[in-house]
Write a structure and sequence with these properties.
- This protein is 18% helix and 34% strand.
- It has 692 residues and is α+β, with helices and mostly antiparallel strands.
- A hairpin with a 5-residue loop joins strand 17 and strand 18.
- Helix 6 runs parallel beside helix 7.
- The chain is globular and about 75 Å long.
- It starts with a strand and ends with a strand.
Length: 692
C-alpha cells in the first residue's frame, strides 16, 4: 500500500495505491480533479489541454455547496498526512478555499483489499454559521475510453451496464437487476426520493475491458448515485459519477469553527466479474466495519414465547439443540400480549409474564450457558404508551407543528398514533441512550435487538430555530451513530443485532456498531432467495439474519438457504439435521468465505427459474453449492461449474437432503461441472464439498 504526493509544473498529483487498485487525483487550477481508477504505467496523467469545461466540473473529486455557493474551484493544497498501522494506510489531504472560509480534508483508507473507503471533512473557518446545501462524498471521472464504438458488439450501444436493487418498498429488498448505462445521466436513490428499503449499493461493469466496480454509501439517510456517460460521435467516452446526500436543504448547518464529517463511501474495482469485486468489498468490510468484539463468530438464535417458566424450559431446549442465543421478542413488556406495538416505549417487564423482573430469566440463562436477549424499538412511542403525552415535545413535527403520527411500514394492521423521536436533538438522543442503558443494566441481558417499525420521516422534516431551518435527516443520523458508538463501548460483551422492519437500515453507517442485521421481514420462498442473493452482494453473508420456516413451502428450501447465513430459527423436527451440518460444516468457514453469485440478476421480485449460490473457504478445502428452484424453474436438472474449487484436489461431497456421499475430482467440478437433479418449484438442493 502506498500514497504519493508529487508536484509538477505547479500542479499537485495524489496517487493512492493499495496493490490491487490505483486511484489518481490532480489539483489543477484550483480544482481537485479525478483522473480515475487507472491500471498504472507511465501515461496515466491526464492532459491539461483536455480538461476543459464541462470536464472540469464533472471531474471534481467532491462537491461542496455552502450557502448556495458551489465550491468547485479556488482550492489550494495545505498539507497531506498519512498514518500507517501495517494493516491499513490512512491518508488525509487538506485543502483550503482561497475565497470562502472553508477547509476540506479528503480522507482515504487503504487496506490492500482492492476496495477503498473515502470520506471528506468540511471545516468552517469563517466567523459565521454556514448552510451546507449540497454534499457529494465522492465524485468525478471514473474512466476515459477512446474509440469505444469500434470495440463493442454490434447489438450493444454502450460499454456499460449498471446494477442495483430494483425496489425500495418493505419486503422487497435485494432484487438485483442490470440496467444499460446509455450516453446521458442516470440516477437512483433512496430514503428521500424513494422509500428506505434499497441498500445504497451498486455495481458498474465495463464490458469492453472486463472491469467491474462495486460501491456503497455508509449512510442511513437520503442518498443518490448519479452516473454520467458522455461520448462524442467519434466514440470518445467519459464516465463520471457522484455519490451524494439527498434531502431537504440545508442538509446541515455548520457552525463557525465546526468540522463536519461526511459518511463514507466504499469503492471496489477488479479486472474481472461481479464476484471478484464483491469479494474484495466483503474483505474490506470484514477488516474495517464489522465490530471487533465478536468478529468471526456466527451466532444461532432461537425465539421464545410465554411466561418465565416457559422461557426457562425453552432456553434449555435451545441449548440442548446447539443454539447460542435465546431471545425474547417484542411482547416481553406489554400488558396486552400480542399488542406490544402500541405499548412500545414502556420498557418494563410485564408483571404477568415476569413477576420477578426480566433478570430472573437472564440469570437462569447465564447459569446454564446460553445468551439471552430482548427486543426494543427505541425511536418510536406507541399510542398507548405512558410516554405518548409526556414526551410529546420530543417527537418530530410537521409544518403545522403537529407531531407526525407515523405508520408501520407497509403492514396491514394499525398501530394507532405513534410518536417518532427527533434524534437530531441532542437532549432527545441523550434520553433514549439513557433508557437503553437502563434496560441493559436492569435486565442483565447480553443480546440486544434494535428495531424501527415506522416510516422513516426524518428526510422530510425541518428543525427551525431563530428563523433558521435545517433538515433533520443528516444530524439525526450523526447523533444516532454517536449514541450507538457510546453504547457499544459501554457494553462490549453484549451481542447487538440491527433491524428496521427487516431491511430498512442495513447500511454500513449503522452496521459498524452492530454484530449482524436482519435483511427483510418476509423471507418467504422464492423471495427469500432474491433477497439474500442481493443483500449478500453488499454485505458478508455471516452477518445476515432473516430466515423463517413457512408451512406451505418445503422447509428444506429455507434451511438450505440458512446454511449461507446467520440463522434465526425455531426448533422443529427438521432443524436437528440442519444444526449438525451448519455447526460442523458451514459455520467454521463462513466468516472468511468467498461467495459466488452464479445467478445475480432477476427481472422480478417473485423470481422464476433456478437461483444458484456458492460459498467457498478461502483455502478452497470446503465448498457449498445451493440450487434454489423458484417459481416455474423450467428445468429438471442443472449443471453448475464450481468457481471456488481447487482443480488439483479431490472432494468428498455430501448431499444435504439425502445424506448420500460420493467423491468427485476438483478438475471435474471446476471445468466439467456437476449435474444436479431438481425436484420442482419451491424446492432446493444443497451439496457440501470437503477436500479429501
Amino acid at each position: 500500500m502506498d500514497f504519493k504526493h508529487t508536484q509538477d509544473n505547479g500542479n499537485d498529483f495524489f496517487e493512492y495505491d493499495d496493490g490491487r487498485i490505483k486511484y489518481v487525483e490532480w489539483l489543477y487550477n484550483g480544482v481537485l480533479l479525478s483522473c480515475g481508477f487507472v491500471n498504472g504505467g507511465p501515461n496515466w496523467r491526464a492532459d491539461a489541454n483536455y480538461l476543459k469545461f464541462p470536464d472540469r466540473t464533472e471531474s471534481s473529486v467532491f462537491i461542496v455547496e455552502l450557502d448556495g455557493m458551489s465550491l468547485i474551484d479556488h482550492w489550494e493544497f495545505i498539507e497531506s498526512r498519512r498514518e500507517d498501522s501495517g494493516d491499513c494506510l490512512s491518508v488525509s489531504v487538506l485543502l483550503r478555499h482561497r475565497i470562502v472560509g472553508t477547509e476540506v480534508a479528503v480522507c482515504t483508507k487503504l487496506d490492500g483489499t482492492g476496495c477503498i473507503s473515502r470520506w471528506i471533512e468540511v471545516r468552517n473557518t469563517s466567523d459565521h454559521a454556514c448552510a451546507l446545501t449540497r454534499l457529494a462524498v465522492m465524485s468525478g471521472r471514473m474512466e476515459y475510453m477512446e474509440s469505444w464504438k469500434n470495440k463493442i458488439r454490434e447489438d450493444l450501444d454502450t460499454p456499460y451496464r449498471l446494477g442495483y436493487f430494483e425496489n425500495t418498498e418493505w419486503r422487497y429488498e435485494g432484487q438485483f437487476k442490470w440496467h444499460e448505462l446509455h450516453s446521458d445521466k442516470y440516477s437512483f436513490g433512496g430514503r428521500f426520493n424513494r422509500f428506505r428499503y434499497r441498500h445504497p449499493f451498486c455495481v458498474l461493469e465495463n464490458r469492453i475491458i472486463g472491469v467491474t466496480y462495486a460501491m456503497q454509501l455508509a449512510y442511513s439517510g437520503g442518498y443518490q448515485f448519479t452516473f454520467d456517460f458522455r461520448n462524442s460521435p467519434a466514440g470518445e467516452g467519459v464516465l463520471a459519477f457522484a455519490a451524494e446526500i439527498d434531502g431537504l436543504k440545508p442538509i446541515r448547518m455548520i457552525e463557525s469553527g465546526e468540522t463536519l464529517r461526511s459518511p463514507e463511501i466504499l469503492v471496489s474495482k477488479v479486472i474481472g466479474d461481479l464476484d471478484g469485486s464483491v469479494q474484495q468489498m466483503h474483505e474490506h468490510i470484514r477488516n474495517n466495519y464489522i465490530p471487533k468484539s465478536f468478529r468471526g463468530k456466527v451466532f444461532i438464535e432461537n425465539r421464545g414465547v410465554g411466561n418465565v417458566g416457559d422461557d426457562k424450559e425453552n432456553a434449555g431446549k435451545a441449548l440442548e439443540n446447539g443454539y447460542d442465543i435465546y431471545y425474547r421478542d417484542a411482547d416481553w413488556f406489554s400488558e396486552e400480549p400480542g399488542n406490544y406495538l402500541e405499548y412500545s416505549g414502556d420498557w418494563e417487564a410485564s408483571p404477568g409474564l415476569y413477576p420477578n423482573g426480566f433478570r430472573e430469566l437472564s440469570d437462569y440463562c447465564r447459569s446454564i450457558g446460553i445468551r439471552v436477549g430482548l427486543w426494543m424499538e427505541t425511536e418510536r412511542i406507541g399510542s398507548k404508551s405512558r410516554l405518548m403525552k409526556s414526551d410529546h415535545d420530543m417527537f418530530m413535527k410537521n409544518e403545522k407543528d403537529e407531531i407526525i403520527h407515523g405508520e408501520l411500514d407497509g403492514i396491514w394492521f394499525s398501530i394507532g398514533e405513534s410518536g417518532f423521536y427527533n434524534l437530531s436533538r441532542k437532549d432527545v438522543c441523550d434520553k433514549i441512550e439513557a433508557e437503553i442503558c437502563r434496560v441493559l443494566e436492569e435486565t442483565g441481558v447480553n443480546f440486544f435487538r434494535l428495531d424501527c417499525n415506522i416510516d422513516y420521516y426524518a428526510p422530510w422534516v425541518m428543525n427551525w430555530e431563530d428563523g433558521r431551518g435545517e433538515a433533520v435527516d443528516f444530524r439525526y443520523n450523526e447523533n444516532m451513530y454517536a449514541m450507538w458508538d457510546r453504547i457499544r463501548r459501554r457494553f462490549p460483551d453484549t451481542v447487538f443485532e440491527n433491524c428496521a422492519s427487516g431491511g430498512g437500515r442495513t447500511d454500513l453507517g449503522m452496521l459498524r456498531f452492530f454484530d449482524h442485521t436482519w435483511i427483510s421481514d418476509n423471507l418467504e420462498a422464492p423471495r427469500a432467495f432474491t433477497i439474500f442473493n442481493g443483500m449478500s452482494m453488499c454485505l458478508p453473508p455471516e452477518i445476515l439474519t432473516a430466515l423463517r420456516l413457512w408451512n406451505h413451502v418445503d422447509p428444506d428450501y429455507h434451511l438450505m438457504l440458512a446454511m449461507f447465513t446467520r440463522p434465526s430459527l425455531p426448533i422443529t423436527e427438521k432443524t436437528g439435521k440442519f444444526m449438525k451440518y451448519y455447526r460442523e460444516f458451514a459455520r467454521p468457514f463462513l466468516p472468511t468465505c468467498r461467495l459466488f453469485h452464479h445467478t445475480p440478476a432477476f427481472r422480478s421480485f417473485d423470481a422464476t427459474g433456478v437461483g444458484v449460490l456458492e460459498a467457498a473457504s478461502d483455502d478452497r478445502t470446503r465448498d457449498m453449492l445451493g440450487l434454489f428452484c423458484n417459481f416455474d424453474p423450467g428445468q429438471t436438472d442443472c449443471t453448475v461449474k464450481l468457481k471456488g474449487i481447487n482443480a488439483s484436489f479431490d472432494y468428498k461431497i455430501t448431499d444435504y437432503r439425502t445424506e448420500e456421499t460420493f467423491t468427485v475430482s476438483g478438475y471435474d467440478l471446476k471445468y466439467r461441472g456437476i449435474n444436479v437433479p431438481l425436484r420442482g418449484a419451491l424446492t432446493a438442493e444443497l451439496l457440501m464439498m470437503e477436500k479429501i
